Amino acid sequence: xxxxxxxxxxxxxxxxxxxxxxxxxxxxxxVVDLSSLAVADIQRxxxxxxxxxxxxxxxxxxxxxxxxxxxxxxxxxxxxxxxxLVPLALIILVGVIFLIHQLxxxxxxxxxxxTKNIMISASQLDVVTAHLAWLFDPMIPxxxxxxxAIAAIxxxxxxxxxxFRSLFQIILLMTPVVxxxxxxxxxxxxxxxxxxxxxxxxxxxxxxMVRRSDAIHADMEARSTDLELNNFKLKQLGMALQKSEARxxxxxxxxxxxxxxxEDNMMISLANERFLELSKYSKSxxxxxKKLSDFIDKDDLQRIQRFHAKRRKMGxxxxxxxxxxxxxxxxxxxxxxxxxxxxxxxxxxxxTIEDITSRKKAKTALQSSIKKLRxxxxxxxxxxxxxxxxxxxxxxxxxxxxKNLRISMANSRFSELxxxxxxxxxxxxxxxEFIERKSLFRIRRFQAKQKEKDLAQPSEYECLMLDKxxxxxxxxxxxxxxxxxxxxxxxxxxxxxRKEAEAALQAAHERLRILAVGDELTQVANRRQFNxxxxxxxxxxxxEGLPLSLIMSDVDDFxxxxxxxxxxxxxxxxxxxxxxxxxxxxxxxxxxxxxxxEEFAVIMPNTNQLGASRVAESIRIAVEELHIPNxxxxxxDFITLxxxxxxxxxxxxxxLDALIKExxxxxxxxKKQGRNRVVVSENACRRGENNLSWRVSSTAKSxxxxxxxxxxxxxxxxxxxxx
Length: 723
Hints:
This protein is α+β, with helices and mostly antiparallel strands. A hairpin with a 5-residue loop joins strand 16 (693-696) and strand 17 (702-705).
């Protein structure tokens, strides 16, 4: 490499001396023009080429085949007379089946294992369908007769004489049958004869034309075979030359170095991908538009020109290697080395550009690092002292841990956090002794999983820490291991107060949640929770097909009770009623809610009418047995309840509002019949729930029994009066 060599593009001083670069004993590399080796297509003069009008694309074939059934369906739908022999609906069904079959054939044409027999069978199906359309046509003469000719001619032109021959055989078999059936059904009509003759003529004419065209095509292929054999050796030579050029081009394009081909005026005629990345230009911006000298820094270009002129004046050889700076499209400066050599493709100069920018930067950085290293070495003792001071006076509890987890340094904050003195910690304690056992095992399991997955270990862990008195403290442990060292710096942040605040906040949130969904007075679910839970159970049981029951209750004469005993006693009364209802509805899925004022509701999932009615009666008895005095009541001397029961199996035909309305109507009926009783909804009975028959014994003990068939027919709603 010539460190002072120059390269330029001035017209007085050429940058590269081609005479000095090209060796005299190097044989010229003759470039083969591949276009001269290509076999020219023989222009044959032909009068008529049937293959030119054949549609080979599957999309055109499926379009043509779809047109046949669509044409038939449109025709039979438009004519006023009904089809012969079969109804129009059957013709439409057959047309749809035909379309589905054609879609199957179209899909097979997309597959590489397609056989000729599949295409022939599809064409035969077209002709058979056309004959059926002609047979069912009620018009005289039948326009569907032309559909036979269209199907035969279209498929024959498309697939050749072999297919046409099979179609012709089908026509010879089916046409007499169709004509005979139509004469039998509609009689003979002389007007049909010209159409029949015309169709036969078109089919025969097209058949012989296709056969003649296929024969001419086969003869032409046989003649072209001799010409291809005569040019075989020439093609082999052309292919060998193309492979040779492809190898050189592949080496050029995939080279890791930036390479360009330049003309004698330094104009770039070819560049590989590495040069495009280096220069940030595209091929269209470079070829025959940019010179190699356009990329060289102006100062370096002038320096190289002066050096080149001096060497020529002294009679020395022109160097083939130059070191300079290069400007890319974004005006970024890059340090490069340019080397020139002769390529074997054409008599042109190949320039290889090596990017040494990183090397230059590394050299500059190395020099700067050496300077800084000398400065750092002078301050090392002082820095070590400052480091120890910083370690001691940092605001966090910090320790220095060796590879075996033994603590080699600890500051005062860590000593305060753990309750141990520095003398008791340094060299005598391990980090694992301060971590709570479960937290330590959790951290080790997590690190093992990270190692198995080949993932980086985290530098921060939240865990429990034990002090000297075995008190638990919540801490965040951060671990930092300097590169190339085995010792780690571990810092601890005490978050015990934050954890306690978070726990208190979570407890407050839980209390707020309970207040949001519960009734403050009775400590049961409020109206909002009642609506949400009822909607959830309705949706769930609608999927499962299980019953949902609802009990609506109201305290009898509660307004008079408030007026007589006061609102404070009224509140205590409601709380007692709510407690009795919760104890009676014992299942965890049952929801007791305050519906409003003195009204309560019980949601009972997976419960039929019989079970809900029994629970309702148990609730009524439990409230009555509380013996809460109510002298203002018109029913009893004690507080009593009136209850309405509704039960449904949720479905799409029913609504949630219907369940509530029926329970409310049953409650209203209980009040109307004298209060202190349970009434079952009449509509719930009609929707398939089990009807109930209430019987009261002489000892005032009530029980529920399934009704017999006669009772079920007569009973619309059943109520149980209070004892």
